[in-house]
From TrEMBL:
GO terms for molecular function: metallopeptidase activity. It comes from the Bacteria. Residues 40-104 form the Metalloprotease TldD/E N-terminal domain. This is Peptidase PmbA. Residues 246-453 form the Metalloprotease TldD/E C-terminal domain. It holds the Pfam family PmbA_TldD_3rd. PANTHER family: METALLOPROTEASE PMBA. GO terms for biological process: proteolysis. One of its GO terms (cellular component) is cytosol. Residues 132-238 form the Metalloprotease TldD/E central domain.
Length: 455
């Protein structure tokens, strides 16, 4: 348990607030119908949060926020109009619905426009354990942040400065409703504790950090552990070297390996596909990855980062394979992109939900031993990824591995390749999953990429 008691005195009125949002959504739908809309959908949300930051033992910021918003999309046949507001007053709601209807009347018809198929609407709403609102108040959060930073700064005399530590806590209530009669209610929470430190002096200074994140505050690392982990990572980066330009194996640590999965998902998502802006066009049924490789989407996972019983259109979600046996099983589609492609939605309006990548290796150290000699990447920089061609080029930092052992820090290098070829050249995925993301994947070893350094 955390050393400071959480603030649990405030009663949880989230159920009542969700009902109020649902009632507002229903009123907006009814008003749209009265104004002549053939279909309509409404999204309502109410978000609140606390964020504190400290640096060098002093309070820098304390910010409390509470936001809400309403958005409506109406359809007059296949003409569409949207409007939004943050004001829940009756006059503002009336004006927002009227504005959306006015926009729709003057837009051109879009053959793919419209709500999702009513037969696909979710009807089961299990408790997915995503609601854990208990959190520290401002004074408690500041005490946690100060303890975290202090533990990092005192860890080693070579820690020369700090970029600060912070605590954040957020809750979200959301309702989606449409004229099919669907009303979906969701509530979720997220919390984090972070620290960033600086080691060394002059031109030899290095910066790094660490953070813990969870849906429940009690699941966060202890503040001292976060601060010490941040200090260790910062010290490990002192006295870095560059590398000669060469072809070599590249091992992606868990905190960066999920970006490779994100590139795959982006390339097989509907928007990129119907715009013909993906290097993986017409790839369903193709072997894109090694025969042992698999990715499963698990939207109904208890306490998952993106667990949900329905997508952004109310379509029921379900567990399904995205990649199996290295073969792409399906695309990632909402109703609009599915219609543009002549396909059916996959329940992914709004994105994917809890991807789990199958492992075939224990973890980073064992994979480094398997690699023998190569580059371990712990940080990626820049956005040098071409979604149309799959060409990949990003700045990187990490460590040189020799004889299976991590030898010295490296920065000032670029790693490059082509994503289609990189996917085929994945030789191992570790069990060392980074739990701080909805993409559950461990370290990834690619057996050959170009690493370009200053030598």
């Amino acid at each position: 348990m955390n050393p400071i008691a959480l603030n649990t005195a405030k009663a949880d009125d989230s159920a009542q607030r969700l009902e109020q949002l649902a009632d507002t959504a229903q009123r907006m739908l009814e008003r749209a119908r009265q104004l002549g809309a053939s279909q309509a959908e409404v999204s309502c949300n109410e978000d609140s949060g606390l964020e504190v930051n400290v640096r060098l033992g002093q309070v820098e910021t304390v910010q409390s926020s509470r936001d809400r918003g309403l958005a409506i999309t109406v359809y007059f046949g296949q003409r569409r109009g949207s409007a939004s507001t943050a004001d829940l007053a009756d006059a503002s709601i009336e004006a927002t619905v009227a504005q959306a209807c006015a926009i729709a009347r003057y837009t051109e018809a879009d053959p793919a426009a419209g709500l999702a198929d009513p037969a696909l609407m979710a009807s089961q709403f299990p408790d997915l354990d995503t609601w854990h609102p208990a959190a520290p108040d401002a004074d408690q959060a500041l005490a946690l942040a100060l303890a975290c930073e202090q533990a990092g700064r005192e860890f080693d005399g070579r820690i020369s400065n700090s970029d600060g530590a912070g605590v954040s806590s957020n809750t979200s209530l959301a309702v989606y409703a449409n004229s099919h009669g669907f009303v979906g209610r969701e509530r979720s929470s997220s919390h984090s504790l972070s620290c960033a430190l600086i080691a060394g002096s002059g031109d030899g200074m290095q910066r790094d950090g660490w953070y813990s994140a969870a849906l429940a505050f009690a699941d966060l690392w202890q503040p001292q552990a976060v601060g010490q982990k941040a200090a260790q990572r910062t010290l490990e980066r002192l006295a870095p070297r560059s590398l000669p330009t060469a072809q070599m194996p590249v091992l992606f640590a868990p905190e960066v390996s999920r970006s490779l999965i994100a590139h795959l998902v982006a390339a097989v998502s509907g928007g990129a596909l119907y715009r013909r802006a993906s290097f993986l066009l017409d790839s369903v049924g193709q072997a894109l990855l090694p025969p042992w490789f698999a990715i499963e989407e698990r939207p109904l996972l208890a306490r998952g980062w993106r667990s949900t019983a329905f997508d952004a259109e109310g379509v029921a979600t379900r567990d399904s394979m995205l990649v199996d046996g290295g073969v792409l099983q399906r695309y990632v589609l909402g109703s609009y992109s599915a219609r543009m492609l002549g396909l059916q939605t996959t329940g992914n309006a709004g994105g994917v939900h809890n991807l789990q990548v199958r492992a075939n290796a224990p973890g980073l150290l064992q994979m480094a031993a398997q690699m023998g000699r190569g580059f371990l990447v712990t940080e990626l920089m820049g956005q040098g990824v071409n979604g149309v061609t799959g060409d990949y080029s990003r700045g990187a930092a990490g460590f040189w591995v020799e004889n299976g052992e991590i030898c010295y820090p490296v920065d000032g290098v670029t790693i490059a390749g082509n994503l289609r070829q990189m996917f085929q050249r994945i030789v191992a995925v570790g069990e060392d999953v980074d739990p701080r993301s909805s993409v559950q994947v461990g370290s990834i070893l690619v057996d050959q990429m170009t690493v370009a350094g200053n030598h």
